Amino acid sequence: MPNLFQEVFERARREKRLLGVRSSQGDPSRFSVGYVLSYSEEVVVLRIINRDGMPTAIQSFNLLDVFQLDFDDQYTRHVEFKADNLDKVYAGLKSPAFLEQEDLTVPLLLERAHQAGQLVNVYTHLSMDYYGYVRQLTQEHVLMECFTEYGLPDGLVVFRIEDVRNFIWSNEDTRVLELRLKQRGPQGA
Known about the structure:
Elements: H1 3-15, E1 18-22, E2 32-39, E3 43-49, E4 55-62, E5 68-71, H2 74-84, H3 86-89, H4 98-101, H5 106-116, E6 120-124, E7 129-137, E8 141-147, E9 153-160, E10 164-168, H6 172-184
């Protein structure tokens, strides 16, 4: 086994950090993410964590098949963040009272998100979707402050309200993003 593989296995095990293992050269985009339980000259055993942060299996990998390790990259940090915050990410859905009390329209949902400072996920008919905060609203347009799924600022976007296809008030991804942004401190309005 290459010495660098052992060093990365040991570091991931010691630091209790997720590690990505690529073992399918026929499909290099496929990989497994998990915590290193043990390793030897022949195999590495991981507690597999799925993209939702949930443990799903204990799996061994023959080191002759392993061709790449991914450690501390953006994707594994994202899954690790979910795994470390399962109680917050999968806590009960926030269901504001107005959802059951008013005749809902897309403009009203956008206005309520703006008033509540709620991070939302908006999908448009133009096959675009945005995570962010509604910062301004007119009868025809919405201005959103956007973020990537990893919590990085992604600029401002203005689009027509009539182009909104659907609207997510709160789901796993928006809650993860809210947690990331709260850790960074207050956001500008």
